[in-house]
Structures are given as structure tokens and as C-alpha cells.
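Input chain follows. Return C-alpha cells only.
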Amino acid sequence: MLLTNANIVTLQTDDSFGQIEGGAIALEGEQITWVGAASDVPDVHRNGEVHDLGGRLVTPALIDCHTHVVFGGNRAAEFEQRLNGASYEEIAKAGGGIVATVTATRGASEAALLADALTRVDVMIAEGVALIEVKSGYGLDRETELKMLRVARQIAQVRPIEVRTSFLGAHATPAEYAGRPDAYIDDVCIPTLRAALAEGLVDAVDGFCEALPSTPHKLRGCLMWRWTLACR
């Protein structure tokens, strides 16, 4: 198959991002075998089925390096609060934000979490995303954090997309550890990370730190501090 009349962005390092106007793409099965200007199409690719792309923009597949596609419930009402000027910290102090999603996520089955996640992933695939990073962080206990990571791993088994997982147990302090954020890190986050690594569920570690009342003291120190470590 030959795709013609395409504006192709190769993302090379020059100022034009390698854009080829009036380009063509040759396909064999599911593989791209040639890309270039339409005038340079090799003869071997000229005898197949031809599709005119009508000048559409063609780019390499996209990578979304920060997603939370696995979670229960929703916080749609908070969008209105944000639009009316409420800060993230104010919403969190009122019981919203991260902690508001925890109860719904803890109560959801793996099947339910996967079904909800796939509705979001399908939209991303339709928009050209081929690889996503998926964070945990809405369980805040061992069982649910591991459940979220298992669901994230399942996504790549049922959809044509690559998945990398990040353990984000240090996302907020759960209600049962109120006033004891450091104990949460020691009692829950670190043992759960070790369990996730033992199950092969985690590729990286992420920690969230902001001036929120629920943020573990061990992760405070700046307005926003984020660290990611490769798990070996």
C-alpha cells in the first residue's frame, strides 16, 4: 500500500522537524518500509494500492509520559471549583483532590478498573498515542496500589499500546495515617514498593510533594518536587 499526498513530520533535529510536504509512505503489512517525497517513491512501491491522504499531517506515534488512567469514581465537580478560583490545596483541605478518589478506587474490582481505564486508553489510541506511563497512587494501601499496577499491566495485553508503570504510593497520606505521614512511608509505601517489584509490576518510582496537608513530611521541602527512579 502506498499513502500519498501527506505532510510528514519525521522529527529530525533540524528547524523544520524533518517535515516533508507532499510526501508518501509505503507499507508492507503493518510495517512502514519507506518514507519520503512522492517524487522519490521507489518503483517497487508504485504497483500497490494507493490512498490519497488529502494533505493530512502524519507524525510518529505519540508518547504520554504522565497518566492516571486507572482509578475509580470521578472528581468532575472539582472542575467547577477550580474554574471558580479554588486552589488545589483548598480543595484538598475540604476533602477533595487525591483522597476523594481513594475510597472509590479501593472499592472497585480489577475488572471494573480495567473497563474504565480502557475507555480512556481507547481515546488516547485514537489520538495517536502508542505508549503511556501509568501511575498508581489512588489506593494508598498495599492491596489497592498493587491492584492498580496489575490493571495497568493488563492494558497492554488487550490494547495495541505499550505501557510503563510507576509506583506512586507517596501521592498523599490516607485518612488512617492522618498526622503520621512518615509512618505511612515506612509502613506502607516502602513495603508495597518491594512487593510490586517482586511481582514485576513496576518500572519506576514516583513521589509527589506539594504544600498539601496530606503530603508526607519525608517528601516535603519545595512547592513541587518529583523524583523518578528506574526499578532494577
